[in-house]
Design a protein that fits this description.
heterodimer, A: 447 residues, alpha/beta, Urease, subunit C, domain 1, TIM Barrel, five-stranded parallel beta sheet, 29% helix, B: 321 residues, Rossmann fold, 2 domains, four-stranded parallel beta sheet, 36% helix, globular, disordered C terminus
């Protein structure tokens, strides 16, 4: 019997009444004001706004028409545990996730040591069962030590709760090696997620290769570094009938390669990050190290292709690739800085401000893509409905805030949206009926 | 525009460039005196902070500061705390405790001088940041060319060689265009960065049209580029891109930032020809750097003792087509 894929710390489920919230769940075709009652971790009753009475043992949240979404799910975060706890740990990372409206995340294995063995996975899951504010799943490595040379014990890892496998941070450079992993997936199961990069093309690069890198004299990473590997691995997946997920797509050629693979019926899926959907190489011109990430921010044309891919479903979901780094690690010249931006606390607000408010994407579509990651990994999709587990996010769409103005829940502050004025603030995140995050301004009345 | 730092040629408009050049012309007279010194920066301290080996640029700055009567401290990163793992920021904060009025900074990292300008109150002079910029080189090249050609307006300047790895190329593309020249870059396709044309220059992969140039600016071809297989061999590079007596017309001015690889990017005959202004460039280096230090340390900034918060660098001005 395989272990449950998601683990969380001891959560205190609260019986609560969310009064007069505007429920928006595109999958349940819900878009109206309701009262929502939660008991013992489940949604037990929904009614006309203001019609449900608050019982004496319930906490009452006055929704005032704010939007209630199914809680977001992020299939791509770095919680930096074990070994890099000065950047983030399970507690701070899941606190940041909760503050961003997430009730579930998948943690990447490029830690120190790499998560590539069952004992290590077990100890991490034990730690998450003590510390995690929300549900965490772990993605152990495809190859031992991320070295690309020898498969991890994928079948044993799966029986110990591995959600899937990835060498994220690094590509599986050898096609032969990846092919073995895809074949072995028939035994082990689990989605194989791929960071796509050809190191012979990206070597020496710190940003997107183009006009800005040419002007700055900073080594460029060409988009073909990613897109040729997406095309290669889509072909491998098709040949082996394997299930693969392409991580953090960044350019038009990769979107086309995924679309072509999907058109052939290959079992591929993909994600895009808020930063690739909202920023471009122009944002790197000041050499702000918060804008240094892998894959790098590309051109406006690439950004538009990602938005279009998200809209038409070529891109299945949004993932933050939340990648915390300590201040002194990022406070160095651009070429020396590590790759990565934090993103959990700003994802919804940044995308709502940058894409929904200007009318580029509908709010329904954004909510769909912020929750779709779970199903891609064969995990239950958060839903709003009677009998569903209470994984909920309450958002004030009108609230304006400056990202980072009151500090961060994350241990790190390297957020590419830091200092930007955003609209849309998470007020409350409920994970399995427990309050994982509550904005101080949100009124709570004990019944 | 008043200058607080010299970080990038993008921060200098034509008027600012011309002001530095005019000041350098005044200082050129000092260099011809028997006593080559003026008291303009007496009691001021200039710190040379060099993270890369550089004899020529460093001594040029040192000489410039000394001719202005400033005190000079040289801090080389090798053999220092830097090798013990100290970060750039900690090194700068430590050295700032000595209260330098200016820091001349050479590093292998793009944008390092912008960072340092935020960490300490001294005026920062970018003496080369990775492959990005070398603005005093561009200023001394403008100075040299102006003394040869008068004005640069309408002049055709070809920059030939390893543009990809050249901070000199990047600063000069901007500076020459601001002064009204038309810039063409030429070199092997592997060493011309994709997107460079966005800076407003033309791109060529052969020297076929080199005769149209008024000025030929050859870049240094570094030997390690061969081991990194950017070009197949020095021999092939020289065959296609060497500026030699056959390719250089008598009316053309030849420039090079030094040090020259004779027989590689330049043939010996052109280096020694009267068209070459390579030693004039070196000479210009001192007076232009005097002008830069003078401008930075005696301008508006010096009047107020407290450092002002630095505005972010101005966006690049539109380039002439």
């Amino acid at each position: 019997m395989a272990a449950e894929p998601l683990v969380h710390g001891p959560l205190q489920a609260v019986d609560m009444l969310l009064r007069d919230v505007h429920v928006l769940d595109p999958r349940a075709e819900l878009d109206a004001r309701h009262d929502v009652r939660v008991r013992s971790g489940e949604i037990v009753e929904m009614g006309e706004p203001g019609r449900l009475s608050c019982d004496a043992d319930e906490e009452l949240f006055e929704g005032r028409g704010h939007r209630l979404f199914p809680a977001f799910f992020d299939p791509h975060v770095h919680l930096r545990t074990p070994g890099q706890e000065h950047k983030e740990d399970l507690e701070s990372g899941t606190r940041a996730a909760a503050a961003g409206g997430y009730a579930g995340v998948l943690a990447m294995p490029n830690t120190d040591p790499v998560i590539d063995s069952a004992p290590l996975l077990r100890s991490l899951r034990d730690a998450a069962a003590r510390e995690a504010r929300i549900a965490v799943g772990f993605m152990p490595a495809i190859t031992r030590g991320l070295q690309g040379e020898q498969l991890t014990e994928m079948a044993e890892l799966r029986s110990e709760g591995a959600v899937g496998f990835t060498d994220d941070g690094k590509p599986v450079t050898s096609a032969g090696m990846l092919r073995k992993a895809l074949q072995y997936q028939r035994l082990a199961g689990g989605v194989i997620a791929l960071h796509e990069e050809d190191p012979t093309l990206s070597r020496g690069g710190s940003m997107h290769e183009g006009a800005v890198s040419a002007a700055l004299g900073i080594g460029g990473i060409p988009t073909i570094s990613e897109s040729t590997m997406v095309a290669r691995d889509a072909a491998l997946a098709g040949y082996e009938g394997a299930r693969v997920h392409f991580q953090h797509l960044s350019c038009v050629a990769s979107v086309r390669a995924v679309a072509a693979a999907k058109a052939q019926g290959f079992a591929v899926s993909t994600e895009a990050t808020p930063h690739h959907l909202l920023l471009t190489e122009e944002d790197v011109r000041t050499m702000d190290t918060r804008m240094k990430m892998n894959p790098p921010l590309a051109t406006e044309g690439d950004r538009q292709a990602l938005i279009e891919g998200l809209r038409d479903g070529t891109i299945d979901c949004v993932a933050t690739d939340h990648a915390p780094h300590a201040r002194d690690e990022k406070e160095v010249p651009f070429e020396q800085a590590p790759m990565g931006t934090t993103g959990l606390e700003t994802a919804f607000a940044a995308l709502y401000t940058g894409l929904v408010l200007p009318g580029v994407l509908s709010l329904e579509l954004l909510v769909d893509r912020l929750t779709a990651g779970a199903a891609l990994y064969e995990l239950p999709t958060p839903r709003i409905g009677v009998g569903e587990p209470a994984n909920l996010t309450l958002v004030d769409l009108d609230a304006e805030w400056v990202a980072g103005e009151r500090g961060w829940e994350s241990r790190s502050e390297n957020c590419c949206f830091g200092g930007r004025k955003l609209r849309g603030k998470v007020l409350l995140t409920v994970c399995a009926g427990a309050v994982a995050f509550r904005e101080r301004a949100l009124t709570v009345v004990s019944g | 525009m008043s200058m607080n730092h010299l970080l990038s040629m993008n921060d200098l408009d034509r008027a600012a460039i011309e002001r530095v050049v005019a000041q350098a012309e005044r200082f050129a007279e000092v260099s011809d005196r028997e006593i080559k010194k003026v008291p303009a920066l007496r009691g001021r301290m200039v710190l040379n902070l060099f993270y890369e080996a550089s004899t020529r640029t460093r001594s040029s700055f040192e000489l410039a500061a000394k001719r202005l009567s400033a005190d000079v401290v040289n801090f080389a990163a090798s053999g220092s705390s830097v090798e013990k793992g100290e970060s750039l920021k900690d090194t700068v904060l430590t050295l700032s405790a000595h209260k330098p009025d200016a820091i001349v900074l050479r590093t292998p990292w793009a944008g390092a001088s912008e960072l340092v300008s935020k960490w300490c109150p001294a005026a920062i002079v970018n003496a080369g940041d990775g492959k990005r910029e070398h603005p005093t080189q561009a200023l001394l090249d403008v100075y040299t060319l102006k003394s040869r050609l008068g004005e640069l307006d309408g002049a055709s300047i070809w920059i030939v060689g390893d543009v990809a790895h050249s901070r000199v190329a990047r600063s000069n593309i901007v500076a020459f265009q601001r002064m009204g020249a038309k810039v063409t870059v030429a070199g092997p396709p592997t060493l011309i960065p994709r997107g460079i044309e966005a800076l407003g220059c033309d791109v060529r992969f052969t020297l076929q049209d080199l005769p149209s140039a008024d000025v030929v600016y050859a870049l240094r071809m570094q030997n390690e580029r061969m081991s990194e297989t950017w070009v197949p061999s020095i021999r092939e590079y020289a065959a296609w891109y060497q500026v030699n007596g056959r390719r250089l017309a008598p009316r053309q001015v030849l420039m090079h930032p030094g040090p020259v690889n004779r027989g590689v990017e330049l043939s010996g005959e052109v280096v020694d020809s009267p068209q070459a202004v390579i030693t004039a460039q070196v000479e210009a280096g001192v007076v232009v750097r005097m002008a830069v230090l003078y401008e930075l340390l005696t301008g508006v900034r010096a009047a107020s003792s407290a450092p002002e918060p630095q505005p972010s660098p101005a966006p690049p001005e539109p380039q002439p087509a």
